[in-house]
# Entry
Amino acid sequence: MAEFLIEGGARLKGVVRASGNKNAALPLIAAALLTDEPVTLHNVPRIRDVMTLLKLLEQLGAGVTWPAENTVRVHAATVNQCLLDPALCREIRASILLAGAMLARCGDITLPPPGGDVIGRRRLDTHFLAFKALGVEVSMDRDFHLRTAQLIGAEMMLDEASVTATENAIMAAVRAHGTSVIRNAAGEPHVQDLCRCLVRMGAHIEGIGSNTLTIHGVPQLGGTEFEVGADNIEVTSFIVLSALCGDGVTIQKASPEHFAMTRLMLGKLGIRWEARGTDIFVPASTNQVLRVEPDFGGAIPKIDDAPWPGFPADALSLALVAATQCEGSVLIHEKMFESRLYFTDRLMSMGARIVLCDPHRAVVMGRSTLRGDTVQSPDIRAGVALVIAALCAEGQSRISNAQQIDRGYEKFDEKLLGLGAKIERR
# Structure
């Protein structure tokens, strides 16, 4: 069990580089199974979830090497089995992403239930309905058994705009016989990364970035090189902490073109930043107007999550902790996961004024003076929100279960140290 010891009150300043997007790297790694030629991915974050998924690929027979610190080469010349290690699958949600690629490559996979953050029910129905549309037989005992003699292109309407289900459907459809049309598809930046990489490998995909994808299946794909885009949630984390306790922070290689809705939502809290080419500059907190902007007529505003291009669900915990340091009241509405807001009890123990209305809604009444405390990280995003709270708090905080944060953030504590934070890993 790792923990972070944080002394609050330090002022952050300087330059930090955004890591590659975990949620892009994971499906891109899975997509390497679609070809028997090498796939080289650059800007891959060396985090626990990535390393666990690569172990699963190695068990399937793929070769994995790291030519450079953040460059991984996957060569699945042969795939020697269709069984996945249940223990490794329980460690990450992303094990489900192997289903589409393995069905395209082998027509068969036995998938143990995936793990990941405990933030509420995370249904798999959308994945299996998409596979069934493509001609896959799905059965279940303790594991999920997926088989097909031939993937056949089809039109489908996803019953929710699930990111991983969209990615699975894409990976299966690119090797299916005929044309597939995926409606209500997720369009997040990481889904776009997957599509663009597959196109480089020889896939034919139309509508990238929209909610309707048309995919013309091909009999085989080739190898390629591809650079993973910036992690938009990590960038949002640095925007928030810099606005709350920074003296001017530049986030390099941040892909600011993906932050239109994030700018609108965090703008309701008075948080401002500037795009400088591919970088984002966050002015000092003393130059921020950290005040909730009321809706017309003085009504309490709402910050809620939605499918792309809406505000990302993974960023909602960050907006919530930011609201504790802004004057005024705001409603945080988490529509997707019924357990994500339960971490607010940790913030309340630190002095935050929050009313948890129900599993999906919390009213934050700022500005609160936070005090250092001993708290536990329940999941990746809540863990980072607690780190931000500790940096803003008076006194010392101890955040246990910090290895949860390591699953999604590369060298997060080292990056904070580089900006001047007082943080120690134990």
Q: What stands out?
A: The CA atoms of residues 31 and 394 lie 46 Å apart. The chain is about 30% helix and 25% strand. The domain at 3-19+230-425 is CATH 3.65.10.10 (UDP-n-acetylglucosamine1-carboxyvinyl-transferase; Chain). The mean pLDDT is 93.
